[in-house]
From TrEMBL:
<keyword id="KW-0963">Cytoplasm</keyword>
<feature type="compositionally biased region" description="Polar residues">
    <location>
        <begin position="1"/>
        <end position="14"/>
    </location>
</feature>
<keyword id="KW-0436">Ligase</keyword>
<feature type="binding site">
    <location>
        <begin position="48"/>
        <end position="53"/>
    </location>
    <ligand>
        <name>ATP</name>
    </ligand>
</feature>
<dbReference type="Pfam" id="PF01171">
    <property type="entry name" value="ATP_bind_3"/>
</dbReference>
<dbReference type="InterPro" id="IPR011063">
    <property type="entry name" value="TilS/TtcA_N"/>
</dbReference>
<comment type="similarity">
    <text>Belongs to the tRNA(Ile)-lysidine synthase family.</text>
</comment>
<keyword id="KW-0067">ATP-binding</keyword>
<dbReference type="InterPro" id="IPR014729">
    <property type="entry name" value="Rossmann-like_a/b/a_fold"/>
</dbReference>
<protein>
    <recommendedName>
        <fullName>tRNA(Ile)-lysidine synthase</fullName>
        <ecNumber>6.3.4.19</ecNumber>
    </recommendedName>
</protein>
<dbReference type="InterPro" id="IPR012094">
    <property type="entry name" value="tRNA_Ile_lys_synt"/>
</dbReference>
<keyword id="KW-0547">Nucleotide-binding</keyword>
<feature type="domain" description="tRNA(Ile)-lysidine/2-thiocytidine synthase N-terminal">
    <location>
        <begin position="43"/>
        <end position="217"/>
    </location>
</feature>
<feature type="region of interest" description="Disordered">
    <location>
        <begin position="1"/>
        <end position="20"/>
    </location>
</feature>
<dbReference type="InterPro" id="IPR012795">
    <property type="entry name" value="tRNA_Ile_lys_synt_N"/>
</dbReference>
<comment type="function">
    <text>Ligates lysine onto the cytidine present at position 34 of the AUA codon-specific tRNA(Ile) that contains the anticodon CAU, in an ATP-dependent manner. Cytidine is converted to lysidine, thus changing the amino acid specificity of the tRNA from methionine to isoleucine.</text>
</comment>
<keyword id="KW-0819">tRNA processing</keyword>
Length: 340
């Protein structure tokens, strides 16, 4: 992996003109880091070797050399393909050739019940957080673009999800920062091409066995057929939904504080809530009592809300061998082993 950008010779005193795509990426990183408390923030830059992450690495390497940030490149090798070990090592060498310290973190993936994509994502973020803590860095930067955001919203629509899911990925979540959410994937590809950056095209990104790959292909087909900027519109939908979801979540958080962890709650506590807040409070309530959130879908939450608001005696089974029983004006959570 290499880049066309290098040291200037004595015969070329003028700095070469920066291509618009690379300039936009540098500016996006600078804008995102405006929230940083440190004047020279420490960053873990997640790099896979693809165009998005290599363009991000190139931009952060420039800022690192200028002393605006302290960057460290981290490549997580999931070991899902034989070539990934070589790609990860090559990425690390490239990062260091650009002046950025780098490391490769190798993880093992157990698909389990959550599936391969989700398991790989969980392992990747855990590894990145480990690297951030070890380095004492302020933020983890990932190269998700507006194109990724649109795919995320489309997947939420396909699942029939609520506002929070349609809000897509947040530009800032905990110590995770996504500075490129305002840029399309073609911008990162243009940057790599202009700077002569070698990239790795992961064959899994073309494997239609994965739902996200099919969503990506569907988006491209819809834009071509309808002649509409669907990617940009879906990303804007995410921004609008995120603002709404944040507002409602704040109200739900306050409303649910008093019942979190309580196995028996008066039904009136729930029925006094607006529907939008109710579903969030009910979901948070049972999760606080041990129900695995990844197995608690919107349909089951809606059924539980209906049971509680109906006020009549009844019961509903929940994931994790648990259930909620409504009786005598109370909603009681109990393990299935203690029921009946």
């Amino acid at each position: 992996m290499s880049t066309a950008e290098g040291p200037r010779s004595a015969s070329s005193p003028r700095r070469p003109t920066l291509d618009p795509a690379s300039a936009a990426i540098r500016n996006a990183v600078r804008a995102a880091l405006a929230v940083a408390e440190s004047s020279v923030p420490g960053l873990i830059v997640a790099v896979s070797g693809g165009a998005d992450s290599m363009a991000l690495l190139h931009a952060t390497a420039f800022l690192h050399r200028r002393g605006e940030i302290r960057a460290r490149a981290v490549t997580v090798d999931h070991g899902l393909q034989t070539v990934t070990a070589e790609v990860a090592d090559r990425v690390a060498v490239t990062a260091e050739s650009w002046g950025v310290p780098a490391e490769v973190m190798r993880v093992s993936i157990d698909a389990g019940e959550e599936g391969l994509e989700a398991a790989a994502r969980t392992a990747r973020y855990a590894a990145l957080e480990t690297a951030r803590a070890a380095a004492g860095a302020d933020w983890i930067l990932t190269a998700h673009t507006r194109s990724d955001q649109a795919e995320t919203v489309l997947l939420g629509l396909m699942r029939g999800s609520g506002t929070r899911s349609l809000a897509g990925m947040s530009p800032l979540a905990g110590r995770l920062m996504r500075p490129l959410l305002g840029l399309d994937r073609d911008r990162t590809e243009a940057s790599c091409q202009a700077q002569g950056i070698e990239i790795w095209n992961d064959p899994m990104n073309a494997d239609t066995a994965f739902t996200r790959v099919r969503a990506r292909q569907l988006l491209a087909g819809l834009e071509a057929q309808l002649g509409q900027p669907i990617t940009a519109n879906l990303a804007r939908t995410a921004d609008l939904c995120r603002a709404d979801a944040d507002f409602i979540d704040a109200h739900a958080e306050a409303a649910g504080q008093t019942i979190r962890g309580a196995a028996s709650v008066p039904v009136e506590v729930f029925t006094a809530l607006d529907d939008a807040v109710l579903s969030r409070v009910v979901r948070d309530w049972v999760i606080s009592l041990g129900v695995p959130g990844q197995n608690l879908g919107a349909v089951r939450v809606a059924e539980l809300c209906a049971l509680i608001c109906d006020r009549r005696r009844g019961r509903l089974s929940l994931p994790g061998d648990t259930e909620v029983v409504v009786s005598d004006g109370r909603a009681v959570f109990q393990p299935a082993a203690k029921a009946r």
